[in-house]
Amino acid sequence: MSSTNFQLQPAFFDGPNADWVARKNAATPRGVAVAQTFYAARARNAELWDIEGRRYIDFGSGIAVLNTGHCHPKIVEAVKQQLDRFTHTAFQVVPYPSYVALAEEINRRTPGNFAKKTTFFTTGAEAVENAIKIARASTGRPGVIAFNGGFHGRTFLGMALTGKVVPYKRGFGPFPGEVYHAPFPYPLHGITTADALKTVEALFKADIDPKRVAAFIFEPVQGEGGFVPAPADFVAGLRRIADEHGILLIADEIQTGFARTGTLFATHQYDTPVDLITFAKSLAGGLPLSGVCGRAEVMDAAEPGGLGGTYAGNPLAVAAAHAVLDIIDSEGLNARATVLGDRLKQRLSQLQPDAPQIAEVRGPGSMVAVEFHNPATGEPDAAFTKRVQTEALARGLMLLVCGVYGNVIRFLHPLTIEDAVFNEGLDILQSAILAAKA
């Protein structure tokens, strides 16, 4: 093979931003919504610089993908070493030891004192779809019950499971059948655990025989739904109903996994075991990798060839994932998540007397959210939330908005963020909230 001097064009990392916005609008469809009008040139840990040289503090982490920060040296080195070996074989064609070793690690680290098996995919939506496939194969049943406000992907089954219409579902139906939704506990909006579980039971009276339900799927902390934690008694209630009717319990940990909530998985914080866990995002530190882990006998239900994918468990991403697990251990990121999250919640709570728009501050570890409402009416205030986001960006802090009503800011700072940068981000956040109020 001949050598090459190929280099990525320097112009790809050059401005002005406005030119690239125009080129993007001409070359890509409007259905791919882009939050920012600037383009990335480089990033390191929790900081990002655009092609015009402006610096931003990243409290979004590529939507929860960068718990270990941008370009962690261990991850970069692991990928470089794998690049020198091979980039692809397709695990189903020629397997490689690193995939098997990573599956062993996930089996060991996930909650539940029972035999487990793990398989890898590429995206979170793939993990969810395959978890449903596995549940259906294991139970011989078609039905699935998901929850309002949940997000499970943009594929057709993912959209069917997702409990939010705009922007994810509008104009794309019809969706796969045998998918049903129940309310998710949301005390701030008057939905209790008892309300949610009662509606699940009502589905069995009005919509589907429980003996046709393969699985419940829920997020331990709803992501797009507004960082709403699942109460422990709700998860225990689902487990009780599932056991009564032979239904499997799937925890979608795609956004909650890998130290974000203060434990490796959020389900470590419940006394209730689940049967299957889906994961992705921060597993591979920015490279595409996802997976499903579950009870061995359930995972073995699919026929050989029924699971997999051309790029599933790509060796570069697997190498990165091994580095991510090492970083979580060696840098104590579970504990770090709790320390950072507590500092953030304290700062937001201290602001409430001066910013009565703050309705609630919530979330475990560093999966923290602040929800805004109109203090005069108590109604969700999406406009105020957008002003906070805009004011923060003008000061160099990137924030993400979520929630069914678009009135929640979620915080997804890298867990490796330096204290000085984190404190700078908190100062900007405070200034942004007060400016939005003014």
Description:
The chain has about 450 residues and is of the alpha/beta class. The protein has two domains: about 55-65 and about 335-435, Aspartate Aminotransferase, domain 1 (Alpha-Beta Complex); about 75-330, Type I PLP-dependent aspartate aminotransferase-like (Major domain) (Aspartate Aminotransferase, domain 2, 3-Layer(aba) Sandwich), CATH 3.40.640. Helices cover about 35% and strands about 15% of the residues. The protein has helices at about 15-25, 60-65, 75-85, 95-110, 125-140, 155-160, 195-205, 230-245, 295-300, 315-330, 335-350, 380-395, 420-435; strands at about 40-45, 45-50, 55-60, 115-120, 145, 180, 215-220, 220, 230, 250, 275-280, 290-295, 360, 370, 395-400, 400, 410. The strands form four sheets. It has a seven-stranded mixed beta sheet, with helices on both faces. Strands 1-2-3-15 form a four-stranded mixed beta sheet. A four-stranded antiparallel beta sheet has the order 13-14-17-16, with helices on one face. α3 packs antiparallel against α10 (about 315-330). It starts with 16 loop residues before the first helix and ends with a helix. The model has no long low-confidence stretch (mean pLDDT about 95).
